[in-house]
Every structure is written in C-alpha cells, then in structure tokens.
Write a structure and sequence with these properties.
single chain; alpha/beta; YbaK protein; three-stranded antiparallel sheet
Length: about 160
C-alpha cells in the first residue's frame, strides 16, 4: 500500500485502485496506463514537478495526452517563470520514483495546480504512487485533499 492510497483510505475518500504489469522499457508511463487499462486518455493525468523563479517547487497535474505549458503554470502560481524540476529532486521531495509520482501522500506537501480539463470529469485517474498503479478519484475530492485549484495548464 502506498502513501497515496493510505491517505485516501484515512480520509474516507471514495476511490478505485487499478493496477497493471508495468513494462520497464516503457518510455511513457501515462500512455502505458491508458493502453494497458483501456482508459480514456482524457481521464488519465500525470504529475509533474516544476521550480519557480523564487526557488519554490510546485506540482502540476495535467492530462497525459497533453504537454504542460510552463507559462500557464507560472501564471497560476503567481511566478514570472517556472522550469521543470530535476528528476532526482522530484523523487527526493515526493518520496516517489519518476513514473510513479502521485500528487497524494508526498513526503513534503507542495503547492499543487490541477489542469482545468479535469474539473468537468466524473473522475480523474492519477498515479497511486507506484509504476503500474493508478487510482481514480473525483476531481473535487482531489482538489480538496491537495488544497489545489484548477487552471488551464496545457497549450
């Protein structure tokens, strides 16, 4: 059981855990989840970390089928500029490995921004904290757990 799933259970948040056999040769963890679980790519979200010009590390949760637009994330965060965080830093701050980083249950609570595309969905699939493990949650529940807000984050 991962910290993300423990958090969902501890808070009594409705969720569904889905698992698949992760292929270590896969180069797109989110697309692998879409393909192997037969999910709608618009409902599967990836967790990305970025660093603001002031040095704050923040989290963006965006659909796997889209690229994060750094200027949009900077605007949402009230920063002039953001850059993608180094993978080693992302793993150290979250306690998860790249490809299995969940926005939930991270080692350090980081300010989180959710892509607006998720707001109208009945549920969002996010990493449950391990490669090959996804969890479906209601967007409003996710936002509440993370104290996050929805913003247009993709180009």
């Amino acid at each position: 059981m991962t910290p993300a799933i423990r958090l969902l259970e501890k808070t009594g948040t409705e969720h569904q855990v889905l698992s698949y056999d992760h292929d270590p040769g896969s180069d797109s963890y989110g697309q692998e989840a879409v393909d192997l679980l037969g999910l709608d790519p618009g409902e599967v979200f990836k967790t990305l970390l970025a660093t603001t010009d002031s040095g704050e590390t923040i989290v963006a949760v965006v659909p796997v089928e889209h690229m994060l637009h750094l200027k949009s994330l900077a605007k949402a965060a009230g920063a002039k500029k953001v850059t993608m965080a180094d993978p080693v830093t992302a793993e150290r701050l979250t306690g998860y490995v790249v490809g299995g980083i969940s926005p939930l249950g991270q080692r350090r609570r980081l300010r989180t921004f959710l892509d607006a595309a998720g707001q109208s969905l009945s549920h969002m699939h996010i990493s449950a904290g391990r490669r090959g493990l996804e969890v479906a949650v209601k967007p409003d529940d996710l936002a509440e757990l993370l104290d996050a807000s929805f913003h247009p984050l993709t180009a």
